[in-house]
């Protein structure tokens, strides 16, 4: 009877009812009462019941998603499917929105944005949908309210969407402006090329995009490590540096001089003008020479701590891992201390591994620092990483 009913529900695409039926079948298979509480189950019976429940979620969740019932599908897939699989299928569902303006399309868009962005299943897709249907302003706000709460590694792909979008918008607007001025720039499709065509770099230029959007995207891009995105972020910062003085609004933390600080940060991450960037962020962080103890008379609050972290990040990305390690050991909070954090600084053991490859002895400096601080966990982690590296080297030599 249950089997026959299941076939009928599948045929009629009554997915919610099918799920209820599958739970009844799961109870029946384990010899449990088909209604009411199951009581405490033996481990084997509990595991079997949970597995059948998971499979039931998949059985009804995927068809619901294919039908565009995104919210209902996510209710079943949330705990049963791999996030990557759901994200991939959401892209297919989103593709059906193209050219549609009906009520069902608006409902689908709302559900897609909720699941992709606010449930963090596929933030880049959510942002792309918002950019197309709601515009840049709403998307920037949504990023701040949703994506910015994710770990930096998960933010990166979403930040790339915003950097690419604003770059394209700026290029189109700047190209149009320069054309109106009589300049032949139709074949120039890069921001640096257009800025060069615009003439005197000391002459104010713009704005060609909303300055608040520009500042937001320059902030979003800091989580990115892809060289192409860092270059585009640098180009945006160079443009920001050419805005009229009255449009140079202050930024956050060490980026109060938003255009200059962003230009130096992104440039250093790409290996450009590192000394100037180090000097700038060292001053913002109120630090002494690398490796020295902070001046006890100098007030180093959360803003200085943020500047310190950005300094370490640009050193690590810019090819100076040993200097990044020295600053991390000297100035980052010790275990158990609270401080404002960007979340961008690589783990200190990771810094030490990179630094050791450039300057042998850096791993030992980390081990010594751990002994002084009584940081047994980091000490063990460093030894384990070193042991794994030595094993790999030994195996490679024996091959």
Please state the CA-atom Rg, rounded to the nearest Å: 27 Å
Q: What is the average per-residue confidence, as pLDDT, rounded to a whole number?
A: 90
Tally the helices.
Answer: 19
The tally of beta strands, per DSSP, is: 0
Largest sheet: none
Give the helices and strands as they follow along the chain: HHHHHHHHHHHHHHHHHHH
What is the first-to-last residue Cα distance? 63 Å
Described by the principal axes of the CA atoms, the overall outline is flat
Q: Provide the β-strand percentage band.
A: under 5%
Characteristics of this structure?
mainly alpha, about 65% helix
Question: Could you characterize what this model shows?
Answer:
This protein has 19 helices and no strands. Among the domains are: 1-81; 360-394. 66% of the residues lie in helices and 0% in strands. With 399 residues, the protein is mainly α.
